Structures are given as structure tokens and as C-alpha cells.
Amino acid sequence: MDFGNQDPATGRSTTSEPKGRIDDRQARPVTGNVTPPIGRTIEGKSGPVAPTPPGNGGGGGGGGKGPHFHRRVGPENFDESLRRGLSVVRGNMVLVMVMTLATNILILAIPVYLFQISDRVFTSRSMDTLIMLTVVIAGAVILQAVFDAIRRFMLMRTAVEVAAQLGAPILSAAAHASLHGTGREYQTLGDLQTVRGFLTSGTLISFMDVPFAPLFILAIYLVHPHLGMIVIVSALALLVIAMVNQRLTEKPFQQANMAQSKANLHLDSMSRNSQIINALAMIPEAVAIWGRDTAQSLTSQVRAQDRNIMSAAVSRAVRLLTQVGMLGWGAYLALHGELTGGMVIAASIIAGRALAPIEGSIEGWNSFLLSRAAYGRIAKLLRGSQLQYERLRLPQPEGRLDVERLLYIPGGTKQVVLNSIAFSLNPGESLGVIGNSGAGKTTLGKMLVGSILPTSGNVRLDLMDLRNWDPRQFGESIGYLPQDVQLFPGTIKQNIARMREDASDEQIHAAAVLADVHEMIASLPQGYETYVAADGSPLSGGQKQRIALARAFFGNPRLVVLDEPNSNLDAAGDRALARAINHARANKITVVVVTQKPSLLSVVDKIMLLADGSVAMFGEREPVLRKLAGRKAGGQVSDQKGQPDA
Ligand SMILES: Nc1ncnc2c1ncn2[C@@H]1O[C@H](COP(=O)(O)OP(=O)(O)OP(=O)(O)O)[C@@H](O)[C@H]1O
């Protein structure tokens, strides 16, 4: 089928036909669930495979047989995802705070017990009072442990919920942003781990306990104002230490994290290029680059941690000295009959409880800063993502391509890579793009499929600018074979099917036959289930290219861009490619093929010669070929600039 319903939850096309839709395909018998799942073996057809009629591709483009509309899908609102994630945190935090309140109140049980024993039991010498008191206090302590466990359980579940809510939106937004970004966008997923880690950390517990410190201080104040004053001064001293610590450690921690993320990026590229690194004996250099960034990160970390440890030591000393001071001054007050011994010890214990969360917050300050920065990056990515704008699902395109005054100057450079490129192709027309190395052919190809955006000018598919197409619908309507073919780790049929789970075996088989790769796949021990590793093994360069060609034609798209599709192909591969282009023409698929090989030019309708990013020649195949031949005969350089022919 040419298009499926859109599942609003997943954004995927489903294989069911829209209700009430009338076209010639409804005449075909429907035999229940005819779409085998991707895990089953494909049986190749014995005879020649008829070209797939346009509009028969479940996952791909449409037949363009009339104004069929997809169901309009909601926008991918990442801002909303972020808000949902935050509301989960907020909702749970209210309950966690209630548990924290209960925990903190019950913490007073032990000091109260001490106080009661020394001041009531010792004076009354009542066994009953002691038993009663012990039972009540033991109950309070158990309850406190239970409440504390509950709040930790809740925090852990909140962290999991946040990760579950935000993981997919972050990865989608990162994948989208990486197109024009720095390549660091994917690291935002690591930021989510940081935030998750913070939500279950002891630092957050300390942060939540801090607001109850005044309660404890008040309790001490009630025991004796002098002792209260000692604790207040200590708490203020700890706050000052915390602020100084933040100032001292913020910058070095920032530097450490930046250097670490650079080292991680380098590690990532090393793992992707491990073969070349080994073959060219580049391991020492690669390790040195990683070592430099890691060393820089570690140096900054040591600097920051030194300061952090110093602050923590000072604050611990302040806390312990406070307790010493309270005991000493308390004893002095007791000697003057203003306090009992039990009161002094109880006040000292309460002071420890009051100051512990402040100290914990100081120690965990760095992890708070990291998590805050991580959350900032997550929020920036999700709020800034362009995917969140709603797009209308249009009728399936027919394949009309209009390119208008394309100018491309890569960001951060002044080099004009493409200049005033303009041409049009009707549905089913094929264009061969030729030109010297560096003429801009690959850049133009990428621009036609929207993987890079022009500095100015427009690329339109069926009159609609690429930027305004629903990205999913646009992706299903086009095919692209990049110059540097990369397959995904997965089976061959998953690769041909663009990893779609709703792809039918027929579609996969048809695409494989079209790319003349079916026989090659059949000869592999596991056939279509052969697992392709991240480096493309066990396939050869030509085989990879043909599987990528099958992927490009999968689902009968309406526009296919092939960038040097025959660079790794033998004569049979070349013939298969010519057949694929003829098939495309027969099915009104518009094809743009970037090539250096003259053999492919014999099957295209039009030819464009690019020179230094500009159109040097454009027109019907024969006149352009004649003109090119004339140039060669006249000894002219083939990429010399001329006026466009058409
Ligand atoms: N992002 C970029 N930043 C800077 N320069 C770029 C960028 N993208 C392309 N270029 C430059 O644009 C020019 C055209 O590159 P392009 O890859 O399109 O050439 P090509 O015609 O496909 O060459 P080849 O046939 O060798 O593949 C090159 O000089 C390249 O260095």
C-alpha cells in the first residue's frame, strides 16, 4: 500500500487501510494478517519479480494516485514531555517531603528518650515509666526507619519514571538536532543518567532535610537559648563555607566535565574507526589524544576535589567543635543549675542532626551543580527542538522536484559550496549529476533529501518546501543512498526495511530483487537473517552498496537520490543499477543520481554538470552528452563553466 494510517502514539504507519478509502487496491483479496513479522524467513520467488506497482509500499512513498490524506498526527511536543517529566518529579516530591517531615520529627525520639530517662526515670526511679517510654520510643524509631525507606523508594521510582518519560523524547530530539549540531547532542542521554543519579543520591536527601534544620535549632533554643545561639552561629558558618566552596569549585568542575566529554567523543570516534586505527598503526596517536583530554579533565577534577575536600573538612570540624562547645557550655550551665545533664546530651545530639544535612549538602554540592547543568542541557535540547511544531500530513507526493536558487555556505566558513542551483524534475524523470571531485554533487544530494539545509533557496517536493513536510512522511516518500554507505547493526532484512517492524516480506524481497541483491543474499548461510555488524561485515563493499540500494528503493518512494551508487559495483551491479533506474522511471519515481561513470548516464533523462558549486550545464541527456563530447574534442576542460542549457 502506498501509505498506512498513522499511529498517533508511535508516529508509525500501520498496515491497515484507512476506512472508506476507495482505490484499485481494494479489489485485491485481503487474507487476514498477510504481513509476516520481520523475524520470519523470506522465500524468494522462483520466477522474475514483477515491478512493485506504485503505491504498494507499506513503509515507503505513495503511489500518488489521488489526494489521499494521512491521518493528521499531533506534533512531537518535547516541551510537553519535559513538563510531564517535571510534573512527575513535583507530584512525587510533595509526598517525599511529607515523609521527610515525619522522618525528621521522629528523629527527635532518641534525644527525647535521653532527656526523659535522665530527667524523669532517674528521678522517679519508675520501672513502668521506663518500659512505657522505651516502647513508645522504639515504635517511633521503627516508624522513622520505615518513613525514611519509603521516601528513598519513592525517590528511586521518581528517577526511573523521569528516565522512562524523557529517554525517548531526548533521543529523538538529539537525533534531530545532531543533523546541524556538534555531534554532542547524543550526550544529553548521559545527562539524563546524571539527573537520575542525583534524584536517588544522598545529596538530595540532605537537601530535603535542610529545611528542617530550623526546627531542630528551635528545639535546642527551647532547651537553652545559649545552646541555640551556638548552633545558629555554626549553621551560618556552614552556609558561608558552602557558598565559598561553590565559588571555588564551580569553574574547575566545569572544565573537568568539558574535557571529559571531549575525551568521550574521541573514544566514540575511536570505536567507530577501530579498523583504520589498527591498520594504519594510529593507536599511539589516538590514545595520546584521548590521554590529553582525560589528563586535563583529571587535573581540573583534582583541583576542584581538593577544594571540595578542604571545605568538607572545615565544615566537619565546625560541626564537631559545635558539639564540643555545646557540651562544654552545657556542662557550665548545668553546674550553675540551669540545665540537667540529660538536657545537655540531648541538645548536643539534636545539634548533630541539625547540622548533618547542611554538611551533606556541602559535600554533595558538586553533584548538584552537575545535575543542574545536565538538566539545563536537557531542557535546552527539548525546548529548542524543531520537531515540536505541528505539520500537516499531506497527500502522498507524486515526485515533482523543484530546486530554487540554492546557496550553501557551511556554518563557520566563507566557502560557497553551492551557488544559484535551480532546476526542476517532473515525477518519474531521472537526472544524472556529474562534475569534478569537490564540485558540490554530494552536498546537492544531501540537500535534496533534507539532511542539510541550504543557506538560502528552497528545495520543494510537490511544491512544498522540504522543511515544511512532516519529517516522517517525507522520510517515507524518499530513498537515499549516501556516498559513504553505513548499515545498521541488524539483519539484512531489517536493514533493507529501514528497521521498520511493519515491513512485509514482500516489500523487502521486492526491494532486494530490484537492487539485484536477492541472489547474493540467498547464497549467505543465514540469507535475509544474516546479521550485519556495525562495520558492515560479513558483506563486501559492493554488497553493502547494493543492500543500501535496496533500502533506498524500499517501500516505493517517490524521490530517490543515489550518490555514486556504482562506486563499488561490478558490471552485474552496474546492470542492476540501470534496471533499478528504469524501474523507477516506469513507476514514476523521480531519481537523482550522482555519478562519475558514463555507463549510468545512458539511462537518465537529464544531465547536470556541476562545476565549482554552480550549474555549468543542464538539459536533456543527448544534447548535454553531445555538448560534453564537443568540449572534449575541442580540448576544453569538462568542468569549465558555461550557461545552463535549460
Ligand atoms: N560542512 C562543510 N564545511 C566546509 N566545506 C564543506 C562542507 N561540506 C562540503 N564542503 C566543501 O564543499 C565542496 C564540495 O563537496 P562535495 O562533497 O559536495 O563534493 P563532490 O562533488 O561530491 O565531490 P566528490 O566527487 O569527491 O565526492 C568541497 O570542497 C568540500 O570541502
The termini sit apart by: 36 Å
Assign the CATH class of the largest domain. Answer: Alpha Beta
Taking pLDDT < 50 over at least 5 consecutive residues as the criterion, the unreliable ranges are 1-73, 636-646
Q: What would the CATH topology of the largest domain be?
A: Rossmann fold
DSSP strand count: 12
Radius of gyration, CA atoms, in whole angstroms? 35 Å
In percent, how helical is the residue content? 55-70%
Strand content: 5-15%
Q: How many structural domains can be distinguished in the coordinates?
A: 3
What shape does the CA trace take? Answer: elongated
In this structure, how is the largest beta sheet organized? 6 strands, mixed
The assembly state of the depicted protein chains is single chain
Structure ligands: adenosine-5'-triphosphate
Structural class: alpha/beta
Strand order of the main beta sheet, please? 6-9-10-3-11-12
CATH superfamily of the largest domain: P-loop containing nucleotide triphosphate hydrolases
Average pLDDT reading = 80
Q: Please report the number of helical segments.
A: 20
CATH architecture of the largest domain: 3-Layer(aba) Sandwich
